[in-house]
Amino acid sequence: MASRRRMLLKLIILGDSGVGKTSLMNQYVNRKFSNQYKATIGADFLTKEVQFEDRLFTLQIWDTAGQERFQSLGVAFYRGADCCVLVYDVNVTKSFDDLNNWREEFLIQASPSDPETFPFVVLGNKVDVGGGNSRVVSEKKAKAWCASKGNIPYFETSAKEGFNVDAAFECITKNALKNEPEEEMRITTIFLGLLIVCLPALVFIMTKDTFLKQLMLPGEDGHRDRQVASVELLDGALFIRVQKQLLL
To answer: Which UniProt keywords apply (predicted)?
Structure first.
């Protein structure tokens, strides 16, 4: 009899700032899209329950910042990942050229047991922009790069229109299942990751007045944004959720 116990799969989304990582995640999980751009601070995640081959899974999708000043957080957020999603903007050459750097950085920080077989999926996003006339990275070029890295699955997507988003995440889930670790190992990994991620939050709470000023960032409209950490309980494991709050 097939197991109906819900399992956890951790997905990491990487790519340059502005390629649509947050929009892809929100389109897949919430069926929502916003034209208003706000850079992710540190990392955030959403969860979605899916059923595959009579098994229930909770996808924990981590949306990470594309700015260099946040890359030092990589170890805490990358460890324990079951699949890494590399995203670029088909209209921006640099975002495609940087895919190799993101892939190598992930392999260094996450330290998977078998780097050669760890599952990646590449998404060429924003194919809707300009009716497709403004793209500078061809599908042929992208597929050639994916083939050179061990035949990484490739999808062209539009977070705005929802084009190919579900199909891409279905493939991502299937690839994540191939990397699913033993439960005991997963619990250990989550626990260690929790210690790494929670330590700054605990320091923040203990020295709130001191750190608050350092975490205030200028917003697009002249207001100030604050990075806020909250804790979420999921299947007996704790996870940190990092968000921005607007300070008027």
So the answer is: GTP-binding, Lipoprotein, Membrane, Methylation, Nucleotide-binding, Prenylation, Protein transport, Transmembrane, Transmembrane helix, Transport
Task: Answer whether 110's CB lies under 8 Å from 78's CB.
Answer: yes
Confidence of residue 202 (pLDDT cuts 50, 70, 90): low
Number of structural domains (the chain) is 1
Q: What is the mean pLDDT of residues 42-68?
A: 77
- Cross-strand pairs, 88: 124
**What is the pTM for the complete model shown?**
0.68
Q: How far is CA 205 from CA 135, 163, 202, 212, 233, in A?
A: 46, 42, 5, 10, 19
Instruction: Check: CB of residue 205 under 8 Å from CB of residue 44.
Output: no
Residue 150 lies in a domain: yes
* CATH label of the domain that carries residue 11: 3.40.50.300
Within a domain: residue 72?
yes
